[in-house]
Design brief:
Elements (H helix, E strand, L loop, with lengths): L6 H14 L8 H17 L11 H5 L25 H48 L4 H42 L5
Length: 185
């Protein structure tokens, strides 16, 4: 009732060959990449449905995590010339920019004050020159006097013109009377 020993190795060999055979037909590399992309897209579209942890285990095991808390607080540096490799250089650069800004602001304020002071000095000089030229006489009063004189002169010219017209009318009347030859007798 013993089974021959040759049958056991055949059954074990057939069991191994059955286990090595995959349940699905072999896929090509392109199909494998497409399948990985589909899985990644599904995880990206529904991140809460995935069972994967938010951070990998290797990140927790590192004593120092790069790109941790402070990476969102700093601007990306596009120019390699302005990139600081040392934090001290970075802070020195920031301090230098602040000092330059403060200096520019002070210079602008000084220029504004200087131009305003120059205008005030120029106006006061003009006023002093005007007082010297007029001998202390009020210019506004002189202008009013001149206007009054011009108004009086215009009125006198009007009166003279009216008197001239009156004389001309009288002369015309005398001429008309003489032309009628009316005798006084």
């Amino acid at each position: 009732m013993n089974t021959p020993s040759t049958s056991k190795p055949e059954t074990s060999m057939s069991a191994k060959s059955q286990m090595d055979i995959p349940s699905s037909p072999p896929t090509t590399a392109v199909e494998q990449i497409l399948q990985q992309q589909r899985e990644r897209a599904a995880v990206m579209k529904r991140p809460l449905h995935s069972s994967s942890p938010l951070k990998s285990e290797s990140e927790y095991s590192l004593p120092y995590r790069e790109g941790g808390r402070g990476r969102f607080n700093h601007h990306a540096i596009e120019s390699p010339r302005s990139q600081n490799f040392n934090l001290r250089n970075k802070h020195n650069k920031i301090r230098q920019v602040r000092n330059q800004h403060r200096h520019d602001k002070l210079m602008l304020q000084r220029e504004t004050m200087d131009s305003r002071q120059f205008l005030e000095d120029m106006l006061s000089q003009y006023e002093a020159d005007c007082r010297d030229a007029t001998g202390g006489v009020n210019i506004d009063r002189l202008i009013e006097d001149e206007r009054e004189i011009e108004e009086d002169q215009e009125y006198l010219e009007y009166l003279e013109e009216a008197e001239q017209r009156e004389w001309e009318e009288d002369a015309e009347l005398i001429d008309m009377i003489l032309s009628l030859e009316i005798s006084l007798s």
